[in-house]
Q: What sequence folds into this?
């Protein structure tokens, strides 16, 4: 092994590294093998790499011969020799030449071949290498150097801890699993050195420093030694080092023990010589003296942040001193104090600090802290850890009670906070828009919360936030919410969803803070809704002149818009206002306000019913997909919740439903059923039972009709010769219709008779009432140009059939022959003679019907279609519906009052009205006056009486 | 005397009912033994009717339209206006301790004083409803009611009575229920004429509520009322 081997090895290393990089795929094991191989070549054999293969082969051959020729042993020895030689010639000289820290560095660095190839050399090789090193290494120099280093650190110098760590690692590694080497060669000496060092120091300190400072020094050293262990000494050293440390400090221990025993002696004497009290006093005095002489002056001369730092330091020192001193006087604590129930030593120590330092300085400290907080609020960087420590003093000084923190610091801090934010808010509210203000407020709240988590006591959080919220939000709530161009109104107007969410978050936290927000929300929604109503009114009055169905369209648009409005604000409630009940209520109330207004004479109940009709009937004004229809119906039903006159809706709906069903106008049976299900869910079974009955009736009627047809085909002799379809309905389910005794034409009378007979065969006890006003007839008109099929109502048909027997008929004749009222006659004659199709000619030829008119069959009438439908304008049913509903309401109120009184027997007027409104509220909102009238009516009918002494109380008369 | 026109007519009408023989003659001789009427079969036998009453009024020197006649009827527990059955008449006189015309006359001021008694007035007021209404009807015809109110509230001095009657004729024009009748006295007693203590939320019959609305609408309050005299 000569110098070249090292260089070669380096080159080889480089080579194998390149090789490794080039053949990235080759496995880890392979690379390891290559490394070993290369190292062996370099270390054990000649520097000539070219022969390496041959030499390896030789070695292999040498080792694999028969015993006699087996040269393994020699090879092994040679191996060791080689390494020893390398160490002797290369490593040691390089180490010998260096001193102190440099030598340590050289050692740590070492020749890579030796040091960093562990795992490359075989075990024995490594071992012998270290052996050599340790034998030949100037051990004492290493140790001395080392101790110098530690010594330097102990004296407060900066040393390279990492270096020491590495050196010590060598000691550990050289042990190859055992700690012998580390313990024997290093640790023992280190411990001795430490002992020597500390005994030297201790003896100096004890004489130089006052007692208290000595204790502080000791604490400090202990901490440093602990650090040392954790930084570079082996962890197993810790307990031993502590042992030494304790031993060394036994000087102190000795002092303590002697002090303690002295104290013990002083305290255990018979009364005249019992110095417990004096000692106790002395204990206190020593603190007081120290504080007045050392602590206070040092604090007094400092200010602001420096003063705070000093205070924190002094406080931690003080705590150490208290701990030590109370240990000396431990005996006092155990007996004297316990017996006299005096404050404990620990407490006395803290009390001293509190009385002397804290009481003098807390104002100053507090102001300094608050000014720091204010600085931070203004965006400056401050030492948060310092504040945390200072505030901990406030907490600790209370010894478990928060009084001091709360009274001496928190209260003023809160006041200051309030003042600070009140100042800020008064500026912001003038300068900033509402969203900006809210952003700032939210940021402030966040920062204050942060502040608490960083250095304030956690108990301050609610109070602090409450103050900030109060100053920023509560005080200016109205001003903020009502800012003209950016307040809550404007946010709602401009759909500022994010700002609204923020507003909700902020005001949610302050008590009753959401009330004004929800009020504004309500106001806004109801204004928007009222605007829609107004818009619809205007549109309706503008279009009055035009056709009627155009007005109807306007109303359709209105309902659509209301639905859209509802969708929009429902989304607000869900998203911005997190489904808060207050906002649900506001939305409901807002909708109730304008939903019950009605547009141009139509109540919204009617509008909704018409809207449904339009969707559900064939050829309605809106073409929608099935899903869209379902969705729209769903929404209509939701809107219904806001309408107080649900019974009115039901009545209108029933009317429209009847038309759809009877005239086969319903577009889709499933939709009919689906909306009924929805209504049932929302308003209860009672609400929809009639409507459901109607739908069922129609199914039954179809069945009935096929039975009837079968009956006719079985009895051909009674067949009237006219196709007849009868829809049998259950009276109670359907709206009430006028049933006049129309004089039917003879042909039709026969039909009716036949059906009645058929029906008798099925049921005995049912009475059929014929409602001709709902009937339709297909009749053939034999006009001169061509024969046409006319689709007319039964009324119209009856009127036309009169002309089979006479050519001209007067108004009066028609009326008497048909037995109809004036209204009906006028209506149907108008439809036949003045409308689009003039089947009859009228004399005189005017646009209106008068009782003196005469009519003649218009045989010249023709049309390009073969089949025409002659519409008969329906009677305006609105008034009747409303009357019906009114009547029903009277019964409902009566029933409700009687129900309530029956169960309560005696009840005050107010309560009766209240309960009545509550009971009926699901269907309609009864007028209080109406209830009063019903009550009086019930009194007259002897259901109720007034109490004799109190006219405000009613009694139920059974 | 402020008897309403309608009521006067009615009284007039009743007074002209014929076919009744005055039983009142008995008073002139001795009380407590009534004669067996020669007209027992007659439906009005044992009855004092309109004629009889005017005779009686003469005897006791009281105007038939004096409110005291109502009070006397109340004492008699008379079922119908302008009629006393024998039983009612005799029972009433017994209860009043009257056995001669002199005593009857002497008793009049006392009976009149009873009207001043709040409690008794209320009883008389409520009695008047049944007394005045048509038999078999549940409510009191408006004209009769107005006449009775004018009579009664002339005694009671309720300043709104004229307005009330005007209101009824203008807005209501229907019969008056017993409830409304009895509640009106309550209203007159408890609510001051300026309506300051009227509670719109109270259980007053709706007619009274509407009356108050009528008063407010027409601005008939305070000022006008203080001038109002009867």
A:
């Amino acid at each position: 092994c000569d110098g070249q081997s090292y260089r070669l090895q380096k080159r080889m290393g480089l080579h194998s590294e390149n090789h490794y990089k080039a053949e990235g795929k080759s496995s880890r094991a392979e690379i390891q093998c290559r490394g070993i191989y290369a190292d062996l070549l370099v270390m054990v054999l000649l520097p000539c790499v070219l022969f390496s293969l041959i030499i390896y082969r030789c070695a292999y051959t040498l080792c694999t011969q028969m015993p006699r020729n087996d040269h393994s042993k020699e090879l092994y020895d040679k191996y060791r020799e080689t390494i020893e030689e390398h160490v002797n010639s290369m490593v040691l000289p390089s180490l010998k030449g260096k001193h102190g820290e440099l030598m340590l560095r050289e050692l740590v660095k070492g020749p890579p071949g030796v040091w960093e190839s562990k795992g490359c050399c075989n075990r024995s090789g490594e071992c012998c290498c270290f052996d050599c090193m340790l034998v030949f290494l100037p051990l004492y120099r290493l140790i001395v150097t080392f101790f110098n280093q530690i010594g330097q650190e102990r004296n407060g110098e900066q040393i390279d801890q990492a270096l020491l760590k590495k050196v010590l690692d060598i000691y550990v590694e050289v042990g190859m699993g055992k700690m012998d080497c580390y313990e024997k060669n290093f640790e023992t000496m280190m411990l001795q050195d430490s002992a020597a060092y500390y005994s030297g120091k201790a003896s100096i300190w004890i004489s130089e420093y006052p007692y208290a400072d000595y204790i502080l020094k000791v604490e400090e050293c202990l901490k440093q030694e602990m650090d040392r262990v954790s930084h570079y000494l082996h962890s197993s050293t810790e307990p031993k080092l502590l042992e030494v440390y304790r031993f060394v400090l036994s000087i102190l221990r000795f002092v303590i023990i002697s002090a303690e025993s002295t104290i013990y002696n002083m305290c255990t004497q018979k009364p005249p010589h019992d110095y417990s009290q004096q000692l106790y006093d002395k204990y206190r005095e020593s603190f007081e003296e120290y504080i007045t002489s050392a602590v206070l002056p040092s604090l007094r001369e400092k200010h602001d942040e420096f003063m705070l730092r000093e205070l924190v330091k002094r406080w931690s020192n003080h705590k150490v001193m208290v701990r030590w001193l109370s240990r000396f006087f431990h005996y006092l604590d155990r007996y004297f104090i316990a017996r006299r129930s005096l404050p404990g030593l620990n407490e006395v120590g803290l009390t001293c600090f509190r009385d002397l330092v804290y009481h003098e300085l807390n104002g100053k400290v507090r102001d300094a802290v608050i000014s720091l907080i204010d600085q931070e609020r203004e965006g400056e960087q401050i030492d948060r850890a310092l504040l945390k420590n200072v505030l901990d003093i406030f907490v600790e000084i209370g010894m478990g009670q928060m009084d001091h923190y709360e009274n001496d610091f928190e209260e003023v801090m809160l006041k200051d906070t309030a003042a600070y934010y009140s100042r800020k808010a008064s500026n912001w509210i003038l300068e900033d828009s509402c969203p900006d203000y809210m952003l700032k407020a939210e940021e402030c709240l966040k920062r204050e919360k942060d502040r608490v988590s960083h250095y304030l006591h956690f108990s301050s959080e609610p109070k602090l936030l409450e103050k900030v919220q109060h100053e920023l939000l509560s005080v200016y709530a109205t001003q903020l919410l009502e800012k003209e161009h950016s307040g809550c109104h404007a946010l709602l107007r401009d759909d500022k969803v994010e700002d609204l969410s923020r507003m909700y978050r902020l005001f949610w936290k302050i008590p009753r803070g959401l009330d004004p927000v929800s009020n504004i929300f309500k106001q806004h929604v109801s204004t928007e809704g009222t605007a829609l109503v107004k818009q619809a009114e205007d549109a309706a009055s503008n279009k009055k002149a035009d056709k009627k169905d155009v007005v109807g369209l306007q109303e359709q648009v209105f309902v659509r818009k209301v639905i859209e409005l509802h969708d929009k604000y429902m989304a607000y409630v869900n998203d911005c206002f997190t489904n808060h009940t207050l906002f649900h209520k506001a939305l409901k109330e807002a909708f109730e306000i304008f939903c019950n207004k009605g547009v141009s004479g139509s109540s919204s109940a009617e509008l909704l019913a018409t809207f449904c009709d339009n969707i559900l009937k064939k050829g309605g004004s809106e073409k929608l997909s099935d899903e869209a229809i379902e969705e729209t119906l769903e929404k209509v039903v939701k809107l219904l919740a806001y309408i107080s006159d649900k019974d009115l809706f039901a009545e209108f709906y029933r009317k429209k439903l009847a038309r759809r069903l009877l005239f086969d106008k319903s577009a889709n049976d499933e939709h009919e059923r689906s909306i009924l299900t929805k209504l049932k869910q929302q308003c209860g079974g009672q609400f929809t039972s009639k409507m459901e009955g109607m739908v069922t009736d129609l199914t039954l009627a179809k069945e009935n009709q096929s039975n009837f047809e079968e009956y006719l085909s079985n009895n051909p002799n009674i067949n009237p010769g006219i196709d007849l379809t009868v829809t049998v309905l259950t009276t109670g389910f359907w709206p009430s219709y006028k049933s006049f005794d129309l004089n039917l034409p003879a042909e039709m009378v026969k039909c009716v008779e036949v059906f009645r007979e058929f029906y008798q065969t099925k049921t005995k006890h049912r009475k059929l009432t014929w409602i001709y006003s709902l009937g339709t007839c297909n009749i053939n008109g034999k006009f001169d140009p061509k024969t046409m099929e006319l689709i007319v109502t039964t009324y119209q048909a009856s009127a036309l059939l009169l002309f089979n027997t006479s050519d001209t008929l007067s108004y009066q004749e028609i009326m008497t022959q048909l037995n109809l009222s004036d209204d009906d006659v006028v209506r149907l004659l108008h439809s036949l003679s003045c409308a689009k199709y003039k089947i009859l000619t009228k004399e005189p030829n005017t646009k209106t019907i008068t009782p003196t008119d005469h009519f003649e069959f218009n045989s010249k009438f023709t049309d390009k279609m073969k089949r025409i439908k002659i519409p008969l304008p329906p009677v305006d049913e609105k008034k009747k519906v409303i009357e019906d509903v009114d009547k029903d309401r009277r019964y409902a109120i009566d029933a409700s009052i009687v129900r309530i009184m029956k169960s309560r027997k005696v009840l005050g007027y107010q309560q009766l009205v209240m309960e009545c409104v509550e009971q009926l509220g699901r269907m309609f909102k009864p007028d209080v006056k109406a209830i009063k009238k019903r009550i009086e009516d019930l009194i007259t009918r002897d259901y109720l009486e007034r109490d004799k002494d109190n006219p405000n109380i009613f009694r139920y008369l059974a | 005397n402020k008897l309403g026109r309608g009521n006067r007519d009615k009284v007039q009408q009743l007074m002209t009912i014929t076919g009744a023989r005055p039983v009142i003659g008995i008073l002139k001789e001795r009380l407590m033994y009534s004669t067996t009427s020669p007209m027992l079969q007659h439906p009005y036998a044992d009855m004092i009717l309109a004629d009889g009453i005017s005779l009686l009024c003469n005897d006791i020197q009281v105007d038939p339209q004096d409110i005291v006649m109502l009070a006397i009827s109340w004492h008699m527990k008379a079922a119908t206006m302008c009629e006393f059955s024998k039983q009612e008449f005799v029972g009433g006189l017994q209860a009043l301790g009257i056995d001669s015309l002199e005593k009857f006359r002497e008793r009049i001021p006392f009976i009149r004083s009873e009207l001043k008694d709040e409690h008794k007035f209320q009883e008389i007021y409520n009695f008047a409803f049944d007394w005045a209404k048509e038999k078999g009807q549940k409510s009191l015809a408006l004209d009769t009611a107005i006449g009775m109110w004018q009579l009664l509230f002339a005694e009671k001095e309720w300043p709104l009575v004229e307005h009330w009657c005007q209101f009824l004729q203008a807005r209501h024009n229907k019969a008056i229920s017993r409830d409304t009748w009895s509640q009106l006295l309550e209203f007159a007693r408890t609510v001051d004429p300026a309506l300051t203590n009227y509670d719109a939320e109270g259980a007053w019959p709706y007619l009274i509520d509407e009356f108050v609305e009528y008063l407010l609408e027409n601005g008939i309050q305070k000022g006008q009322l203080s001038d109002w005299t009867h």
Notes: The mean pLDDT of chain B is 74. Chain B has eleven helices and two strands.
